Structure formats: structure tokens, C-alpha cells
Request: fold
Amino acid sequence: MRIVLLGAPGSGKGTQSQLLVRSYGVPQISTGDLLREAVSKATALGLEAKAAMDAGKLVDDATVLSMIRERLAKPDAVKGFILDGFPRNIAQAQALERLLLELGTPLDAVILLSLDLGVLFKRLTGRRICEGCGRVYNIYTTTPPGAPLHCDGCGETARFIQRPDDREDVIAKRLEVFEAQTKPLVQYYQDAGLLRVVDADADVDTVFRAIQRAVET
Ligand code: AP5
Reply:
């Protein structure tokens, strides 16, 4: 399975990627996660990317493409991959196409997680993350981590944090960037015959089953 999960911030790409990893045994390749890791380790790349991420803007294409090139070269990506949050604009999509052509591993499908703006906003402001294991929660839809703070994922007493870019002003910017730069990919992949649209305004399991149908047909 070689797929792209396309969707606005908060549409559920990360949540669904985790389920796909478990069911299909292929790695999730999330440019957001790779960038956050670089930021937390304060690498040169991370320090450079941080300002753009904190402002809700895209990190420059060259940085992201070199990260993707390196990640796709790892042995676990030979059996397939789920690209989460990449590509993000037409230039990245064209670069991905060239890279996959070189590797002889074309995409099977691009799944668009479709969701209204109002729902996206609520999902992002409600997102909380276990600082210990990274498990993602939502104060509106999943068990709110109450006192004593306990994570179902790592079983530890943990601190639940908010991503710095889940502040309301930054969310607004991220959604604006999605509309302007990422949305044109819908037509791009439609024209390539790869696009499958999934209604993401349903519970996690329902959305997952819809994705399964989309990738298996
Ligand atoms: P990135 O980490 O990719 O963030 P994003 O695309 O903005 O997406 P999110 O991670 O916010 O949301 P998601 O769709 O994964 O939703 P989730 O499953 O968590 O990028 C961050 C930044 O890095 C960018 O702004 C940019 O600066 C940079 N970057 C990354 N990639 C780049 C690239 N290719 N080029 C340039 N820059 C790049 O769900 C959200 C919440 O909703 C959670 O609380 C979850 O529990 C809940 N939820 C999920 N599904 C459901 C459901 N079905 N029902 C109810 N609640 C649900």
C-alpha cells in the first residue's frame, strides 16, 4: 500500500494513519512529526523550521523534500507507506512524483479526508497530547484526561499538552494556508485518477472503514 492522506489540519490524518499502520503494517511518514522531532532535538533543520511552524506557515520545500527522500530510502518503506501531511503544495506533489518514478513505486491512491471548517477548528482546539507517549486525545470526543492524569496509551501518570500551533490564531493561519496552497492538490490528484474522497465527519472507526473501502476497491 502506497497512499497519501490529504486533508486540512485536524481532519484526522494522524489518527487514521495510526489505524492504517496497525492494519496494513506499513509505516506512517508524517512530515509534521519529523519536523517536530527535529525541533525538539534542536537540530539545525529544526531550528530553521520552528519559526514557520509556530506561525502556521509551510516549511520550505527543499527542507521537507530532503527529509522525505531520506525517509523513503529506509528499508521499512520498501513494503509501502502512508504519507501524512505530504505533499502540501503542487511543487511537492511534482517532486514526489519524480522521486517515486525513480524508485519505481508509484502511488496507489490519494485519500482526501473531507471535513467542514467549523468541525476542524473544534477538533484542533480540543486536541491534547500525552507528553509521555504522544498519544492523541480530544477533550470533546475522547475520554478527557481527568485527575489524576492518566494516559491509556502508556499507562503512566502523564501531562497532557497542547501543540503550540493549536492556538486559535495559528489554527486560522494553518487553515488559510491549506485553502491557498494545499487544496489545489485535490484537482491535481483528481486529474491523475488517484483521488478518493472520504467523509471525515464521522466517528474514528466509521472513517477508518470508509478509508479501507477506498483503498481496497
Ligand atoms: P502537521 O503535523 O502535518 O499538521 P496538520 O496537517 O496541520 O495536521 P494535524 O496534525 O494538525 O491534524 P491531523 O489531520 O493529523 O488530525 P488528528 O488526527 O491529529 O503539520 C504541522 C506543521 O508542520 C505545518 O503547519 C507546517 O508548518 C509543517 N509541515 C508539515 N508538513 C509539511 C510539508 N509537507 N511542507 C511544509 N511544511 C510542513 O486529529 C485532530 C484532533 O481530532 C485530535 O484531537 C483527534 O483525537 C480528533 N479526531 C480525529 N479524528 C476524529 C474523528 N473521526 N472524530 C472526532 N474526533 C477526531
The CA atoms of residues 16 and 208 lie 6 Å apart. The longest helix spans residues 168-182. The chain is about 50% helix and 15% strand.
